[in-house]
What does this fold into?
Amino acid sequence: MEQNADSLIRLDDVKKVFFTEEVETHALSGIHLEIHPGEFLSIAGPSGCGKSTLLSIVGLLDSPTEGAYWLKTDQVANLTVRDRARIRNREIGFIFQAFNLIGDLTVYENVELPLIYRGMGSSERKQRVQEVLERVGMAHRMKHYPSQLSGGQQQRVAVARAIVGKPAILLADEPTGNLDSKNGEAVMDLLRELHRDGATLCMVTHDPRYARFADRTIYLFDGRIVEETLGAKQLAEGAAS
Amino acid sequence: MRGAVQDLKYGVRQLRRSPGLAAVAILMLALGIGATTAIFGVVNGWLFKPLPVPQPRQITVITGEQPGAFNTQFSTPEFQDYNGQPGPFASLFGYAPDVVGLTHQRHTDPILVSYVTGNYFSSLGLKPYLGRLILPSEGQTPGADPVVVLGYDYWKSRFNGDRGAIGESAQVDGQPVTIVGVTPPGFHGTATFLDMKAYLPVSMIVRTTDFTTAQWTNRNSRFLSLMGRLKPGASVGEAQAAMNVEASGLARQYPDTERGITIYVYPEWLARPPEPRQLMRQGLIAALFLLLGGLVLLVACFNVAGMLIARALARRREMAVRVSLGATRARLLRQMLGETLVLALAGGGAGLVLGQWLARLLNLVHTQGTLTVRLDAQFDWRVYLFAFLVCLLVAVVVGLAPAFRAARANPNQELREGGSRLSAGIRSGRLRRALVATQLGGSLVLLIVSGLFVRSLGKAETANLGFDPRGVTDFTTDPAYIGYNQAQTTEFYKRLLDRVRATPGVESATLDTGAPLSGFGSAANVYAEGRVLGPKDHAPQNFYVSVTPGFFRTLRIPLARGRTFTEADGEKAPPVAVINQAMAKQLWPGEDPVGKRFRTSPSGPWISVAGVANDAGYVFVGLPHFPLFYLPVAQHYEPLRMLEVRSQVAQGSLESEIQDEIHALDPQMPVFDVQPLASVVDGPNGLMLFRIGAVVAGGLGLVGLLLAAAGLYAVISFAVSQRRNEIAIRMALGATQRNVLAGVLRDGGRMVAIGWAIGIPLALLAAYAASGILTGVGYFDLVTYALASLALALVAVVACYLPARRAMRIDPAQALRQE
It folds into this structure.
């Protein structure tokens, strides 16, 4: 099977089994999934259904036990640790529920980090970091440490760090899970804005308020995709056509 | 490169954000690096630092060895013969250390000088600091060239750095000389460990000592230590080959004196001192003490590594974030090693300060008296380079385990809220325990080796020296320093001894040419009557001193057979000697030596053995059975004498009374090295080396023990905090406080047991290596091993008890509620 030229990401019959001493846990079973450039995909499902495992595999933080994974035109399921790190750095941006900013680094340094790992020159780094911090409205806090920021501010910094490298896809794992509703809304507005500007987004959430912003939502249960729905916009477009 | 700088900057920031951890880690590393660097500083000054002369690698030391003889010097004719040959040497030059009296402005100092050949300074390539040095044209004619060159330090201290001293007159042993120059700073002569105060042309030896013009031309009068400067590009091997050829030629030409002499050519830095058989020994001593310093460093490193592993646990999420952002494992390793490099460099900086302070302490180690020993522990680029390399090594040793742990962070697990950390915790705990067990093992090695040194010192201190130094005070003088001839000197000493013996409170007094362990004395070949030496045999070389009647009584050296000297053993009486038991065994094993005869040259007068004295640690405290003989001072003249007075009078008043008596006979008479004989016993031929060894090794042992205890405490504390919930459950299920205490102690006990299993075999190896420089204790001294093990166990119990007490006080209800 080959990668569909229209797809940014394609998973074919992906399985993930966790082996412990006596137990095999099937976290994902036969996942088929395509994500297209510019798409906003939401992954929903109850706790323990495999959402985060799926996101980890898509984000190359974990590898599937079986199945194929294409990113753009490359098979990436069985790359070396070093190559996965390189692809993560260039193609994928992460936004975590717990923000995961590094406490010992300033806002500026946190955002700069992926570019340092990429080996980018300092003047270009500086320009890019300033751009994204202005975009997320955090330029005035660039010398602050994460502990000096509110939760909503921290997540905006995390979004800035995710997009600074201009990745092919943004992966967000419950990005509003640790935020109050006001800050949650603000972060979602930011993600929607990024999506409107062409970003591809894949977001894990079990909050239906935010899943409705997605173009498409897939529902996982016991490691399988059990349902797939289109968002309001897609439905409207579908009805019009 | 840019990334490396960022890693280092981040490392600095990490230290600033964890000041407590950083301070403890830096202190621990500073102790380890400081101790190692200070020891390396001494080894560097001793073995590695080149002579402060141009092209020092061209300088070689030439020694001659005859079987059975430890005389490595050369006579003037031999020097001239060897130096006259073209070959790989640009020149050969020589020196002969001696103690003389230097009088300037009516004040006489006994000082250590070198009589040097005229080409000594020009061959070394030295330029004067002031005036001029001794010229190649000088030192050729016996008795000629009455000039003296002052050593820079001596000029500074004795002449207050007065430039006007150049050109002034002075006297050396009463002979007028002119001060012509000052050596450059930093040059202390070419004799290992000795600090030369001044330099005289070798020709002056005929005027200032009893060395005669006849001896000047005698091939057997070997007194010059020989050195050579190689021509550019010439090798030591070529020099050795050339010397072998020349020695063979001389052996054919002068078979009586040159036969059997083996010549060795060494690079100068491999000949400190120039004793061929010392090379292995000095390397062994240096390696042993570097090993001990290295063990302290290792214990410190493992301690810090343990702390960093604990911190790496706390930073797993940070590492996982970095991985998610695209950091490779290599990049994380580099970052973590960068952080530990900053820590190591900070520890290294503090260690250098500490090391320099320790080195200054070691520089203060010197002997009282005239033969000043100089331990050059001053830091130079080699020490700084060593310290830097140690820092790099420390960064790797300390950082590798935590770095690998961090680089193996599992982002998939860490980035999820509430991910289980149990397995990583257990693995880290095992690693930390392994590190602590190794620390305890290293500490046990340090304790055992330091214990052996301390026990060795104790044995040396309480060993029967063969003489009784208590209540004896030494005064050294030499009438020749102020120009007395033999008759005047003899008369002076006779009158002095009479006056001293009549002084109230003086039990007995004696004069000799070398007190026990003072470093003064002579050596001579001995030929037993009736013993024919084979063509390849050589007469043994024994130590001797000249003494007055009353010597054995004053020093309380028991007589085994025969008699001691009396006033009847005068200049014209038949030559007699008292030998020690070791010499009796050496020359006449199983026979009564009294009445037997020996002589000190193949054609010299026979000397009858009048008595046999018990062996005494005369030459070196570790050599109690070295063969030696005593001659009556009346039959063997030497102007330098030590007056030894046994008295119950208080030390201070006796010293001033005796000096008054000496100056009553001649106000100009120099008196020096006034000290209790017990202080001489503490000197370089006595207990000094044992004491230095015991203090250095003991200090290292103590530091190692404290570091290991700190490591054990940290691990047990961490384990208790990790097991808080488990302990609470156990208590809820009925465990008593005693059960909890036993559990924690058992945990520590296991590490101590593993440490013991690691430490004992290593200690046996280290102790075996050290056994050559120990006295009175074997390498497997059960008492030392038992005491060291006990000390480690006690410290471990204390280190475990404190966290155990915290564990015992856990409130199960509260702990389980929090969970």
Summary: Residues 418-426 of chain B have pLDDT under 50 and may be disordered. The first helix of chain B runs from residue 2 to 17.
